[in-house]
UniProtKB/TrEMBL annotation, chain A:
Keyword ATP-binding: yes
Name recorded for this polypeptide: ABC transporter ATP-binding protein
Record-annotated ABC transporter domain positions: 29-277
Tree of life domain: Bacteria
Pfam family, one: ABC_tran
Cellular component terms (Gene Ontology): plasma membrane
Any GO MF annotation of the entry: ATP hydrolysis activity
Record field: compositional bias (Gly residues): 1-10
Region (Disordered): 1-24
InterPro entries, per database record: AAA+_ATPase, ABC_AA/LPS_Transport, ABC_transporter-like_ATP-bd, BCA_ABC_TP_C, P-loop_NTPase
This protein's UniProt keywords: ATP-binding, Nucleotide-binding, Transport
From TrEMBL, chain B:
Domain ABC transporter: 2-238
Keywords: Amino-acid transport, ATP-binding, Nucleotide-binding, Transport
GO biological process terms held by the UniProt record: L-amino acid transport
Protein name per the record: ABC transporter ATP-binding protein
Record bears the keyword Ion transport: no
Sequence intervals crossing the membrane: none
Species per Swiss-Prot/TrEMBL record: Planobispora siamensis
Annotated GO MF terms: ATP binding; ATP hydrolysis activity; branched-chain amino acid transmembrane transporter activity
Similarity annotation: Belongs to the ABC transporter superfamily.
UniProtKB/TrEMBL annotation, chain C:
Pfam families: BPD_transp_2
Key words, A-Z: Amino-acid transport, Cell membrane, Membrane, Transmembrane, Transmembrane helix, Transport
Compartment(s) where it occurs, according to its Swiss-Prot or TrEMBL record: Cell membrane
Source species, domain of life: Bacteria
UniProt membrane topology term: Multi-pass membrane protein
GO MF annotation terms: transmembrane transporter activity
Protein name according to UniProt: Branched-chain amino acid ABC transporter permease
CDD domains membership: TM_PBP1_LivH_like (cd06582)
Parts of the chain that traverse the membrane: 12-29, 59-77, 89-112, 139-159, 180-205, 225-247, 259-281
One GO term describing the cellular component: plasma membrane
Species of provenance: Planobispora siamensis
Membership in a protein family: Belongs to the binding-protein-dependent transport system permease family. LivHM subfamily.
Principal location: membrane
TrEMBL record, chain D:
One Pfam match: BPD_transp_2
Stretches the record annotates as Disordered: 1-30
Start-end of Low complexity biased regions: 12-25
Protein name: Branched-chain amino acid ABC transporter permease
Residues annotated as signal peptide: none
TM region positions: 54-69, 75-93, 100-119, 131-155, 162-179, 218-237, 268-291, 303-329, 358-381
Amino acid sequence: MTGGEEGPGAAGVETAAGHATPGTVPPVLTFEDVGLSFAGVTAIDGVSFEVAPAELFAVIGPNGAGKTSVFNVLSGVYRPQRGRVTFLGEDILGLPPHRIAEMGLARTFQNVELFHNLTVLDNLMLGRHHHFGYGPLSALLWLGRARRQELAARARVEDIIDFLDLAAWRRHPVRLLPYGVQKRVELGRALAMEPRLLLLDEPVAGMNLEETEDMARFVLDARDELGVPIVLVDHDMGLVMDLADRVLVLDFGRPVALGTPAEVQSDPKVIEAYLGGAP
Amino acid sequence: MLEVRNLEAVYDDVMLVLRGVSLRVPAGSVVALLGANGAGKTTLLRALSGLLDVHDGEITKGSVLLDGEPVHGLLPAQLVRRGISQVMEGRRIFAELTVEENLKVGAHTAPRQAAANLERVYGLFPLLKERRKGVSGYLSGGEQQMLAVGRALMSGPRYLLLDEPSLGLAPTLVGQIRDLVVEINKQGTTILLVEQNAAMALSIATHGYVMETGKIVMDRPAAELLADEDIKEFYLGLGAEGAVKSFREVKHYRRRKRWLS
Amino acid sequence: MKGVLESLIRGLGTGSVYALLALGFVIIYKATRVISFAQPALMIAGAVAVSYLVQVTGFYLAVLLSTLLIAGVALAVERVAIRPMVGRPVFVVAIITLGVDVVIRVVVNGFIGLDVRQVGDPWGLRLADIGGLVVQQRWIAMFLTTAVLVGLLFAFFRYTRYGLAMRAAAFDQETALAQGVSVGMVFALSWGLAGGLAAVAGTFVGTGQGVDQLTWIIALKALPAIIVGGLDSLGGAVIGGLVIGVVESLVQSYQGDLAPWLGQNFAVVTPYVVMLLVLLVRPYGLFGTPEVERV
Amino acid sequence: MTRMTGRTGDLEAVAEPPRAGPAAPRARRPRGRPLLYTSYSQDMALLDTRAKKVWLALLLGVAILFSGLPDDLLILLAGGYVAAIGAIGLNIVTGYAGQVSLGHAFFIAVGAYTSAALSGDPEGRVVGFGITNMIVWLPAAGLVAALAGVLVAPLAARLRGLYLAIVTLGLVFLGEHIFKEWDHLTGGPGVGRPAAVPELFGFRFDVDSALGTRAQSLYMLMLVLLVLFAVTARNLARSRIGRAFSAIRDRDIAAEVIGVPLTRYKTLAFAISSFYAGCAGALMYTITGFFDPGSFNLLMSVQFIAMILIGGVATVSGAVAGALFITLLPRLTQELPALLPFVSADTTQTPNVFQVQVALYGLLIVLFLVFEPRGLFGLWIRVRAYWKSWPFSY
Amino acid sequence: GVIRGDDEDQKAAVTTGVTNEPCPLAVDRNKGCVYLGTISDLTSGPFAALAVPITQAQKAFWNRVNKAGGIGGKYEVDVQAYVRDNKYNPETHNQVYQEIKNNVLGLAQTLGSPTTAAILADLKANNVVSAPASWTSAWEFEDVIVESGSNYCVESMNAVDYAMETYEPKTVMAVHYAGDYGADAAAGAKIAAERNSLEFTAVETPAGATEQGRAITEITKNKPDLVILTTGPADAAAIIGQSAAAGFKGRFIGTGPTWNPALLQSPAAPAILALYEQSSPGRPWGADTPGHRAMREALGNVTPNDGYTSGWAWSYPLKAALDKMVAGGDISRKGLLAAVKSLSTVDYEGMLPPEAGNYAGDPGTATFRQTLISKPDRAAPTGVTIVKDFYTGPTAQSYTMDGPCFEKL
Ligand SMILES: Nc1ncnc2c1ncn2[C@@H]1O[C@H](COP(=O)(O)OP(=O)(O)OP(=O)(O)O)[C@@H](O)[C@H]1O
Ligand SMILES: Nc1ncnc2c1ncn2[C@@H]1O[C@H](COP(=O)(O)OP(=O)(O)OP(=O)(O)O)[C@@H](O)[C@H]1O
Ligand SMILES: CC(C)C[C@H](N)C(=O)O
Ligand SMILES: [Mg+2]
Ligand SMILES: [Mg+2]
């Protein structure tokens, strides 16, 4: 990993670099020369990158650059026409989304995709879905197994509720929550999955500064305390440049630059395509 | 002028969300409305555009005046015809319609200007023109946001209520939206801008309001707000010395906001 | 061969009725995403109205008046029972239409009484000979009427802004409201049109055989037709109706010889079998708009 | 709205949110019932509040007391309880999992015929195996119906919304055709066949006995079974499976991305729902003792949909309430016309009592849904909200 | 602790469904009251159009009985207090039956076969004598059911025999609904065809005028000389009209319920007048018998319909049995059933021959086997006039009733 020696993110990068260094430890995720297009629209065109353990990797780019599509490929929603994607050493292309989720890939969505009639609690409990090991019969009769597992899951979910400061909304159907809180619930649901890789698609969109700060904290804590590698997409450059260890810049589905925030920020191509004006 | 007087709004007959909000949007101005998640900004806009009903919400007190005339009993369609148009939170495009069809629905109340407005919107967002035959639901998030803004312009509104127009837009586009707002304001459209990007909003607004838990807690000219210590700290992210803080340094501790005491 | 052709033509004839019926369902669906189970009642009400009016005004005027009358009834229903439901789950609305159907049908049955009522159409069971093919005149009339009405509807949806407004309202009522679309107006329009279409369809159902208290059941044939065509497609409704009519007619004629093991009245369920087969290949029917889903 | 945070130092300064976080355990409660849990298991219990326990006990008590009602009402209620089992089943696939099924009548039929065939007279005109013990034919009816559910699920899983609704409706029509043709099993239309014999280890519920009249026995049987089926359904709803169903209903793509296999769970929903339907079908006709293949029609499916909509979607108690409402409604509307002076009792007059009854049935459904679209459950919520906030209106 | 059935201890009650109090609408308030229930298809079921006049006629019938002094001078009969709608659904039928069963002595009407089958066990268990509104051959085997007029099975046998002597057909096709009505008749046609060595085919057809395509194709393709129709009126019109339009020249004979006078206004009228005849278990509305005259007078100004005629005729055996019960002194359900079992003739006031009311013998001998043939006639009140009065064809004559016919198709 190209540990950032300068810039505001230096301290964090060192923490991350402490966890792993490319070359010595195999990457959690490799994305190799992936190409994806829809009738007439090329969404991803020859993108490659790797994510190291405990790395905070950011993907940025103009609207329509293909960032969300990258996430959709990773989580199995889109099937690319070419390329290879390995997660924890296993080829995941072609696997159904739920299989990939079971392997430990969790994500949040750009347009909040919560289960809007369910409470915050149930949404988070759903994050733990594949950690349960009991079947329909046990569920119908609420036998010991189901009961025990549900209780254990509840305890973990409560930890996350505490962590994300959601206690006040616990029993609210999420559809009634303000947008910003919904985004936090989504993060909570992803964390409840105990992910081995976390994808965050614009986690601070629609948040004011204060809330962005909170979210930044949560993201960093998740990475530092749980050691989960994270791929982050956002248009809030302040956040991305502060948090990310490395940044990949896409434009029209093609990679434009890949490097530390500092490197990327000063790349004229990036400035022209995305940042606009001075960095 | 669009004016809100002492407005109270309730959801589901029990949840009081707006508690006596008063606010004025003078014709020709750009007014910014800031506030944390859940403060009630969206609810206020719903009250202005007549959409509370759909959410089981209700105005229980106060009034909304358009050029001195009460309009809070009117249906959304009537309000649109009177020149109030809204960009709804969360884009809300008609995902099954094409880009162009979405825009045409926006022009429902102004069929005569449809063609001209369409050209104008395409001028603002060339990308939309490129994809005009495409099914809008497949657009990327940011593209959809452009469409939502463009659609609101199609009725040629006198008052434009923008609920977080820059949400999910790339920095370059945020700049463009900012310019766009300035531009359409110059062309005579009055704007009420709800934004989380306070720096952007206050840089173009003439006046600003800050809302917390259903109340207006600050009501000042934009320039004054920009200079306010709390606004600087809580909305602009400037430290005491005016330097930009790093997100890495944020602690889980917040100073008590002055306006709450 | 001639048998096949005649069976085909008979299929097109009954298929035209299904198509007319289907159009009413589709129009309401397009604007509200609701399948109106009140259509059967409106259809039969239309036919019964004609059967009374025809004695005074003659057939064509009776059809016109009945169309207006039933459109009016549909508008009233919409205003009283459907409009308050703007923004509510569509299935609740669908069940409401079912309640409406029950109420209207009881009233209409009162007017049907014990009889089989005749609509007094000019075609009766008379035949026409087209190049050696013997065809019932009423089938030709149905076919032409359907064609004309579909043409008019297409023009309406193509050249007025209401077609688009309907689709927008169907997709998201709140957002449509925010664009200044009067969703109530859209509802009323769709119900009015569907009511009028139901009356015309009902009249044709009654040609040649009359209507009695059980005739409403035929309106259910429109359901597989609209699924085959795609729930929100006018053209699909017509094609779906015709396909179902033709297949059913062919099955009626030949299944007994070719596949007797399917049971004696397999034709009755062929619409549903056709529907299932189409859906296996195309989950949104032949011309339905696929639901857009992306995350 | 400012958050109530557990960590910031200025908790006291936070304005009390209007009814925010009402049931937040371990948090300070702004207003309402004192509701303090000391463990998650208390919080997650089936009856998590005192009020619920009291209500349930009260309801059960009343239901048991009802067994002293006249026989015809008992029969009616017993029918209502069986319908409730069916409605709970439909609620699983439609209310919880969001797969609108108009095919419920078909699964009911499968259950009814399975049980009737198993317990039927081997010497009779129609198929029968003479196994009258309920312990055999009831689960069998459920399982065969569940199997039917599993068979249709793959197609159903591909379809959405009303497409699914109408396809399942097609199932009803196909089923009607099959049942009418297969008269060796069904007796044929207009003829029918005897239903399953409700016998449990030698005790017949469908004849008068020392323990009570036939109506009383049937009533108690159905009551006990309903409680059983309701409790298991509640368990299911609060388990991972019930949650996964709701997730699929609310947002299927997101559900899949967090690890819920869609097809498997849709299939499971159909299977469980059909199991309930099958059992309901088996029980339903033990009351009349006889049934006709024409009964399993669109109307029946629609009535079940109406039950869950009127009761309140995705709640077990709603399904029960809705089922009772729909089964009792005709009886209710029978009494009403007597109060209206203009309706004639003469069947040839219009309007006559019988027409008014049917029209009222339709009308009441319309009125009810227009004024309380959330159903009986919504009504209950409203009443409760009213009392909770009383005497403060907001 | 529930009061049930016959043990009911009401002050004025003589027995279940009989009171010493006068009927609510009593003619003579000094008489007691016998309550009879009616369960019919009154609103939304498939037979509503027939059921309504049946019910209406029975009301008039019993009213006339009451005016004429009631039963044995002691009781009047009420058929209006307990009328219920079954919507032709067995479950509903059973439900409403449960509702009224403890208030009535017997049933003045229980309409439909599957519906009645759903309460049959209870009727038998509690000795509830009932007049059916259906003509299925299954009732020949039930003591509690007092049927009137020949069943569909016999009616079709006679129809085929009639055609044998009139048209000498070589081939017969039965076009029929499924079940007790259609299949019962088709079975009769089949038995008669076999006996007359005719070629026989049966075509089952669903209800719905637009669903008759297959039946029409079968008819026009196979060109049978005789078609025995057991459908509803609208369907019959569709079949006859369109077959004729396609050039079919054979004969049609329909059973009773296929007819509706309004068919003569339909476009199929010419075909009907040319090709159709009707068999029926009794004489039509306009017939000149004391019973018919009384019925017309009692009903007054109604649109003629043979639903009335059947409803009226179905009531005679019950009246006879009630008379006999009161005369015998055992006023109870058991008494009524005993009275029924001892009836070997019933005075139908000429509407049916007295032997039609034989409930004493075993089915083999007691089954009534006479029917009539009528032809369409615009001048007649219900559109038909008799061409062949009550007769028994050779097939019906020699046939042994050993089970419901519909099982034999
Ligand atoms: N399912 C699809 N069908 C058609 N086009 C699609 C589909 N998904 C994505 N696209 C197109 O692919 C391109 C990339 O979309 P994507 O959502 O990945 O962009 P993004 O980088 O996330 O943009 P934003 O920042 O605006 O969210 C866009 O032009 C979009 O319209
Ligand atoms: N339909 C509704 N029913 C009940 N409560 C609602 C409803 N919509 C919003 N609320 C509540 O009203 C309050 C204000 O919400 P609103 O959406 O107006 O906030 P906002 O200021 O727009 O927040 P954000 O910046 O996150 O969009 C919140 O507490 C929310 O939970
Ligand atoms: C007279 C008719 C209503 C009888 C009917 N065909 C039945 O047997 O059910
Ligand atoms: Mg994106
Ligand atoms: Mg908002």
